[in-house]
Prior knowledge:
The structure holds 2 protein chains of 2 kinds.
Chain A: E1 9-12, E2 16-19, H1 20-54, H2 70-80, H3 91-107, E3 115-120, E4 123-127, H4 136-156, H5 160-191, H6 196-206, H7 215-228, H8 240-243, H9 253-278, E5 292-294, E6 297-302, E7 308-310, H10 315-340, H11 348-380, H12 386-407, H13 420-428, H14 433-447
Antiparallel strand pairs in A: 1-2, 3-4, 5-6, 6-7
Chain B: H1 18-34, E1 56-60, H2 75-79, E2 85-91, E3 97-105, H3 114-118, E4 124-127, E5 141-142, H4 144-149
Antiparallel strand pairs in B: 1-4, 2-3, 3-5
Amino acid sequence: MQLQPVQGDITILGIVSVDAFTFFSYLKVLGLFSIVIVTVAYATYAERRVSAFIQDRRGPNRVGPFGLLQPIADGIKNILKEETLPATASRFFFVLAPVLVLVPSLVTFAVIPVAAPLPTPWGVVDMVIADIPVGILYVLAFSSLAVYGVVLGGWASNNKYAFLGGLRASAQMVSYEVALGLSIIAVIMMTGNVTLTEMVWQQQQLGMWFAFPLSLAFILFVVSAFAETNRLPFDMPEAESELVTGYHTEYSAMKFSAFMISEFGHMVTASALMATLFLGGWDLPGTWDNAFWYQGQLIGGFAADGSPVAAQPAAWKTMATFLGFGAKTAFFLLVYIWIRWTLPRFRYDQVMALGWKVMLPTSLAYLMLVGGTILVLEELGVPYGFGYGLVLTAVSGIATFSFIFFIDRGRTITGAAAGPAQKIEIRSIGRERQARSADLPAKTALSGD
Amino acid sequence: MAINVKVMKRPEPETTSYLRAALSGMALTFKHMVNPKKVTQQYPEEQTDLHPRWRGTHVMETHADGRPKCVACGLCPTVCPANCIRLVGGEDDQGNRYPIVYEIDEFRCIFCGMCQEVCPVEAIHVGRHFENAEYTRDRFVYDLDRLMEQEHPSTLLWDPSDPAGE
């Protein structure tokens, strides 16, 4: 077995000869694209089933066994439905918007490693479509690109509600992208690199997944990812009860379906990203599956004297790690759906207050904390490994605990009767008028968002 | 099914916690998610038990030899508040009266059951049945043969489980 990247030519049926790397790349694109699309289809099915179960209903169970063919029926329906084009809509952008939303949500998957490298007679195939050096930056770039489609769709519809939805989407994306990026920086400080394959490798080397040593970053990332994907409790751009259905009010048939697919595609990508950044990606417990390209060699770890040990890739390892990755992604998808059907939508000012007044300062402070801890550990010469992780886990645990302690005082997100400004007013009832007027600026700041 | 209304105690402003409330909410939804007891009735497979006094599609009772029990007395079209019964009576060689035409328009019928109550020979009944969808409107005028073909049980005038009813 050769432990080197794929090279040489593959001869198909004894006639056509193609470059092995190109061949496998096409295969991976095709395979992963189909898997993502099928996952998206079944995420819609899961959403309907799980929401039904949560509400003591049964959900779609008529089409095929357990209703498993429902997504196909939905797809056929959406293709056959009449497309409507509002008379006052801007035709070109109206058609362009669904495409602009759909594409970024699907292409982000290209950099996420889905399984351990697969050995073949032509060399070892990485189970990631493109292991590009910018890695996570590519993901951030494309996920923020999707908001253009949303805003454009809202604007091109020439509908007030759709326009409001689009505006809200842009404001929300900008607000939470900051916290999202800052929580990712904590991960980057640990790995020292931005490629997702290296992030998985560093988690294997640390002996624990980043969800523990970077617990607060994990929490912040999950919350921001919810806001980024416009899912409840942050679905401001859609907000059925306020904006009809927000930015896609005027869309019908397959164009609407494109928005739907992209929303679920974002969910799948965000789930996969959470799994990769914080739950070890395709890594399974134990060191048997570790594999990483290190100075041109596929290594599974380092010996005691620091010399690299060759990895032992196998087809069954690839399969097992792929299933592990799928399970982690599915878990986050379930959490997405579960939270959606539990928590009510925030008010718009609450979303903004949470994003700017809580998430941003917390992630900044946490970044300082993690950076400081890493610096101290490096200065003390603690080897990168389990002990290193334990120290960070303890520090992050304290940070997470104090964050939750702070949040859990009713200070952040409360009902209209118990907001910070109102609380001051309640207290000031017995006092002089001056106390109330002194508190007024705080209130205007809150509602001015 | 009665809905149990639970009056929630509102928390005091100073003690409100979003996080704990959210977590307990998620615990609640999780409990429901894994609970196999669902309220949905799988309708075509699971039929509702109709009450013995349910008034639905009409049934014409027949004698053992297949003749309708109806004697064409004309009481049911007279009493019918919706005027949905059309009856043309006739008389055979033995002097027995029988319906030549007996039609009930199920669209006009309000299913009050007065035809059944007024019938002296217990011939026309309303029945315990409600699935009478058709593709055309004219199929809703049930003629005598169709009324005799109905196989569902006919409505009782009192509830057997309620002794006061009798």
